[in-house]
Each structure stands twice: as C-alpha cells, then as structure tokens.
Amino acid sequence: MEVYTRASEPEPEPSAKRGKNASGERKSKNTAVYVTGLPTDTDPDELAERFSKFGVIEEDDSGEPKIKMYAREDGTFSGEALIVYFKEDSVLLAVSLLDEAELRLGDPKTVMKVAQANFAHKSENKNGVSQPRKVVNKKAVTRRIGKMQKKVSEWGMDDGFGPQPDPEDDIQAPKSSRIVVLKHMFTVEELNKDPSLILDLKEDVREECESLGDVTNVTLYDNEPEGVMTIKFRDPVSAQACIIRMNGRYFDGRRIVAELFTGRQRFKRTDARDDYGDGADAEKKRLDEFAQWLLQEGE
C-alpha cells in the first residue's frame, strides 16, 4: 500500500502484461480500478479484503498489494484510492458489483464510486509528446507473474468467493461457463398453490441479473424439490458476477446457493412440448438433450 499527495490523476506503474496495438506499439492492459467517496478513516487492509472478493489483487516485488491511497496537500486521506488487479475480468466484476456499494456493509455513509482507472493522458507530457516507458526488471516481473498466476488458480477454491464447483459433484464447472444454477428459489408446494409464481419469479430474476450483463435465457424447473432455476448469460464474466452477488443471499427465508453449471447436472421441469415418450430411457434422453441446449452458444 502506498500513500502520497495527489496532484493529478493517478499514474500507472508499468504493467507486466503487454500487447500490441494496430500501429505495432506495445500497449499496457488496464487492470486498475479508481475508487472515490471512501471514508477518511479507511484502512488499506479493509480495502484489500473488500476488493479481493472480486479477483486477485496484484502485488509489488515486496509482496504488498498494489493499493494506492491518495492524500491531500496537508497529508490527510482524500477518500480516493487506486487498486490494481492481476486480471482484466476482475475490473469488470468490481465495477459491476461495487460501484455505488458500501465499503462497510450496512453503513450507508460508506457508499463508494468505483470505475476503471483512466490512464490515457499519462502517456504524453504537457507538450503532447510521448514519454519513454520506465525500465522494468524482467526477472523480478517474471517471478511476480508466476506467483500471481498461482494465486489466480487458487482463487475461489476455498475462500467462499468466486465461482464454486457443485459441492456434490467432483467435476468442477469450466471457467468459461455462462450458465448459473440457483437453488432454493421456491418450493414445489408454492408453485402448486400459485402457478402464476413461475412467471413472476422468472421476470424478477431476469431483471435482477440483467444489471450484471446480457441474459439470454431464464429457466425454472418446477419439478425440482431444491427449487432450481438457471440463468444463461452472453459472457462468462457476467455469470461469475451473478454468483458473487447471489450466493448466500436470502430469498423468502431461504438461503440461495449459486454455482456454475457443470454440464453434468440434470434438472426436471414440466414441458408440454415433450415428445420423447415415457419411461426412464425417454426421460434420460430428454434431460441430456436439454443440457446440451443449455451449453450451446448464443440463444
């Protein structure tokens, strides 16, 4: 963590991951978020704890998280900070789920603004001339990348955050999965008493999830005792954001379980268009083909 006087917009440190733009010049990837509206007594550790739930925060050569807290001219904290993630996807998650959210849950006075950091103007000096890049220690960078990649591979496995595998299934969902499974959204008895609840639930879930990304399908499995629904997003980042938002939340007194679809689960629903016939083999064929449809790209 670094604290210094803020005289202008934040200046990025050299990124270890680089690509090339159309002109052939090497271009840094932007993996940083800029946070404003923080309480004056914000602690760097609580920033790290809150933001690490959405991805691995990059570390410097000494092993400290790359979090800069900006100070005013008099040395007091300005309420602004820069947090650098290791992956670009983490920026999308943090912005989607933390912008206008509370730093300290339950305290409305700690609502913060989170946006992707803007470094575009920092590549030029006051005369509009491109500035040379800083020289980096390639060996140190390589060691740091290896360490961060190991953390990325471990992220979400045992800390309760990030995409989690089905606890009853040894097969882990692929990170590219765009389908989220929600459990305990309803009971079969509730649906039997009020069939209109099916449409209401699908509309409510779609509206909630569309704030995270494009939703292509919402399905409710009315024959599942665990109250199962699935949401299919257009991209995997939105699916991960959905899990972070929904997993562990309470709905009508029930604790929701949110997980990625592994491709192995088979859920039952009433389907008036079912033309597979009767019997166990017909049921298995219907469920297998429906699972394949879920995994297909697009609509």
UniProtKB/TrEMBL annotation:
Q: Which Pfam families match?
A: RRM_1
- Entry's family note: Belongs to the HTATSF1 family.
Can you supply a Gene Ontology BP term from the record? mRNA splicing, via spliceosome
Q: Where is this region: Disordered?
A: 1-45
Q: Which GO terms describe its cellular component?
A: U2 snRNP; U2-type spliceosomal complex
InterPro entries reported in the protein's UniProt record: Nucleotide-bd_a/b_plait_sf, RBD_domain_sf, RRM_dom, TatSF1-like, TatSF1-like_RRM1
Q: Its Gene Ontology molecular function terms? A: RNA binding
Keywords (A to Z) from UniProt = mRNA processing, mRNA splicing, Repeat, RNA-binding
User: What residues does the RRM domain cover?
Assistant: 31-117, 184-263
* Protein name per the record: RRM domain-containing protein
Q: Which organism is it from?
A: Coprinopsis marcescibilis (Agaric fungus)
Transmembrane stretches, by residue range?
none
